[in-house]
Specification:
Helix content of chain A: 10-25%
Largest sheet of chain A: 10 strands, mixed
Oligomer: homodimer
Order of helices and strands of chain A: EHEEHEEEHEEEHHE
Largest interface: A-B, 14 and 14 residues
Number of strands of chain A: 10
Structural class of chain A: alpha+beta
Number of helices of chain A: 5
Strand content of chain A: 25-35%
Chain lengths: ~240, ~240
């Protein structure tokens, strides 16, 4: 039987989602260990988004093949008791036998949280990027418009593959401003390695008037990573939702 | 010169506000160490509220006597660089020579955060108390009404003094309900040791129908701690504001 799991985690102390050979502490590794312990044999899971070290998830999706589980809700509770308090399985449900959390995902939503100047807060310190200066949100919105659509995002990616396509469809970048925060909400078909963080770093440079709105178009056209902004820190990034048809 | 400081802290890893002789890690101890380092001699500060181990503060107030500081904002920044990231000095300003943060406080506001059943969230896990069942908020509001006013709160206090008065004036208990949380907001002249946590624990028992609304009046009348509810966990409690005339 194939099961679909929705998982929330605080990525602060993990080396990212993906299991690694070198026994690094990862979210996938923790969940596989919990499942293996409960099932009495080794279990592997597939996650929809391979979040980096320090990146958080409101609702990561993974799927796992298991022999039939009688009481899914009870299994969920048992797994949560075994898991550390910064990883939580929010839901487990039956999925079609062919469902694959990553291959069948049709879209993803990520949010990046920027904390406005002079609004440092001890309670959100691990979940945002503290700005040292005021951001020009209107300019950031202009630059964001350029990025919407189907483009080759090679310039906004770390270690772009020469063989695999770096074309993605970016459906929306919404800038949501509150008294203390600016949240960048990215919706798209899929994202390349570090893409959301490099897009964020570049838009922040626009907001700080360190680069022009037009320079963003130049990164797209040239495909040169060196022309884009810095990679924003991991701690401000959240995988918010994975979409399926 | 006497300076007034406003301080925010995440109390998770501290043994409370108050300096202790046994080298326990406390917020007051951390700030005094930072100030002493900067001033080159031992400095002591006075805080308005002696928050317990694990309790947080949005805006604790303290005062400190120092020889005149030329650039107060610069001192604030230097202290923050030296302090750990879970303690932040939000403001430093000159105060009247006789100002005392605790003795001159005319009121305090505390908030207690309850997380509703099935709303566990990894991002707020250190800042709320997770409820295992649904709360009857209407009944909690009825019970809260009984507590408002000037009363002897001896029954809602740990280790009540026989010599010092346990009479306090409670101005308001507001229950603010959101989709996922219930926040209890307490405003009063001052609070006894553990008083907000015992009030919260008692109101939660009312909300769970483990005790009647009337039983709350009985605690007030008898003054017996054993008749009140359990002390709510420290991690859900925040000192929100200290008031002065």
């Amino acid at each position: 039987m194939n099961y679909r799991m929705v998982i929330q985690y605080d990525g602060t102390r993990y080396r990212g989602w993906q299991r690694q050979g070198n026994r690094a502490d990862t979210v996938q590794g923790r969940i596989e260990r919990a499942l293996s312990k409960r099932c009495g044999h080794e279990v592997e899971i597939d996650g929809a988004g391979r979040t980096d070290a320090g990146v958080h998830a409101m609702a990561q999706v993974a799927n796992v093949h298991l022999s039939e589980v009688r009481d899914v809700e009870r299994m969920r509770q048992e797994l949560n008791e075994y898991l550390p308090r910064d990883i939580r399985i929010l839901k487990i449900e039956e999925a079609g036998e062919r469902f694959h959390s990553r291959l069948h995902a049709t879209g993803k939503i990520y949010e990046y949280h920027l904390l406005k100047k002079d609004n440092y807060c001890v309670f959100t310190r691990q979940y945002c990027w503290q700005m040292e200066d005021t951001l020009d949100v209107a300019q950031m919105r202009e630059a964001a418009k350029i990025l919407i659509g189907r483009h080759d995002f090679r310039g906004f990616c770390t270690k772009a593959s020469k063989k695999k396509s770096t074309v993605r469809r970016l459906d929306a970048i919404n800038l949501i401003e509150s008294e203390t925060e600016i949240t960048l909400r990215f919706e798209g078909s899929g994202f390349l390695y570090n893409m959301v963080r490099i897009l964020t770093g570049t838009l922040v440079e626009v907001g700080l008037h360190k680069r022009s709105v037009e320079s963003v178009a130049e990164v797209l056209q040239s495909g040169e990573r060196a022309r884009a902004g810095e990679t924003a820190p991991a701690q401000g990034l959240f995988l918010v939702r994975v979409k399926y048809d």
